[in-house]
Structure formats: structure tokens, C-alpha cells
Write a structure and sequence with these properties.
Elements: H1 10-30, H2 34-42, H3 48-67, H4 72-81, H5 83-97, H6 106-124, H7 136-153, H8 157-166, H9 171-196, H10 204-226, H11 230-254
Amino acid sequence: MALVPGIDSIMSLALVLLVALVAGLVKGSVGFAMPTVMMSGLTLLLPPEQALAALILPTLVTNTWQALRQGVRSAWDTMVRFRVFLSVGAVCLVASAQLVPVLDARILFGAIGVPITLFALMQLAGWRPSVSRPSNRVEAAVGGFTGLIGGISGIWGPPTVAYLTAIGLPKAETMRTQGAIYGLGAVALAGAHLQTGVLRAETLPLSLAILPTALLGLWLGFKLQDRMAQDTFRRAILVVLTLAGLNLMRRALLG
């Protein structure tokens, strides 16, 4: 008898919880990559559709915590500032989520994995691009592309954090902005996949089961992130971004 639908042994459940803990720790440390870590780990144990369903509640709750960590007013100001990114991204996310049952996502994984990896590696090597005067057009383009890949894969961190790095946000604001953007994205993703049937009675229990472990990891990550200097934080983001990009390239090649 399955312990949780899709999980039929203590060892499998322990490995799933470990993936959730690590994903929360990484997210608390640098603000993103929970879906990337969870999809990479969970798809070794579960079908991709079930892994996607499992990450929905943890991403929703952890991003809400992250967005509200400096208070409701700060989170609201962030949402107003990035309203173009959020609105365009949400529309594209809901639209692309409808394609999950029929679309091979490997093309999109490759399309985002290659430029994200190059972007991060070049910054680690010393290249410092900046968007000194972000425009609504650029923000809409990045938000739209982020929503497109997020709806299909549940992963929307890499293009978002690349954009936030380019516009030079300080550490606390970067963390809060990521939480707000990813949190609203997670709401849209949950709603979209209630419609597609990815999130349903059979897949919801696993998402609930891993939530406490993911929150523990997030709390530990916050403790680590609070101790980081701005430059250390920036380099940590770029390292995780490189790994995320390489993982997307792997998925594009191997599925």
C-alpha cells in the first residue's frame, strides 16, 4: 500500500523529503531555484507530471513567506513596481500551462538553458551588464518569456533572477521581489493546473506531505542568507543560476 499516492516505500518517501529540504535550503539562501531542484530530484523518482504537481504547494507557500518577510507594505510596493512583469508573466503562464499534456518542453528548456548559462558564466568571469533604465517593453518581454516556460515546466526562476541581477537590485529587495514574482506565478500555476488536471485529488497529498520539509529548508536558508555580504550573495546567485542553466540544457538533451 502506498504511503502517499505515487510513493510506495519509506526509502522513496525519505528521498522525496530530502529533495524538498535541499530545495528549500537553496531557495532560502539565494531566493530561487526551488522548482529547478525539485524537478531535477523528483523526476528521478516520479513521473514528470506528478513531480510538477508536487512542487506547486511548496512553491506557493515558500514564496509567500519570502515576499512578506519585510512586511506587507514592502511586498505591495514591489508588486506595484513590477506590475508589468507580473501581469504579462501571469497571462503567458496560464496560457502555456494548457500545453503541458501535449507539448514536448525540451525545446524551451534548451532555449532558456543556453543563454542563462552563458549569462551567469560571463558575469562570474567579470562581465557586469546593467539595465540602468528598465523599460516596460523589456520588462514585458522578460515577464512573458518567464511565464511561458514557467507554465510548461514549473520553473521560472532563471530568467527572472537574470533580469533582477542586470538591473542591480540590492540583496533584500532582490529576495523580496523574487518572492512576490514567484508567489503570484505559483498562484497562477496552481489555478492553471487545476484546470489541466495536473493538480488533482491523486497528486495533492504528495504536495502537502513535502510542504513542512520544504519550509524547514527555507528557514535554514534564510538564516544562511542573512549572514551573506552583498557580493557573496550575488556570486551565490550566479553559481546557482549556472547550475540551473546546465540542468535545463541536460533536460533539453536527455528529456
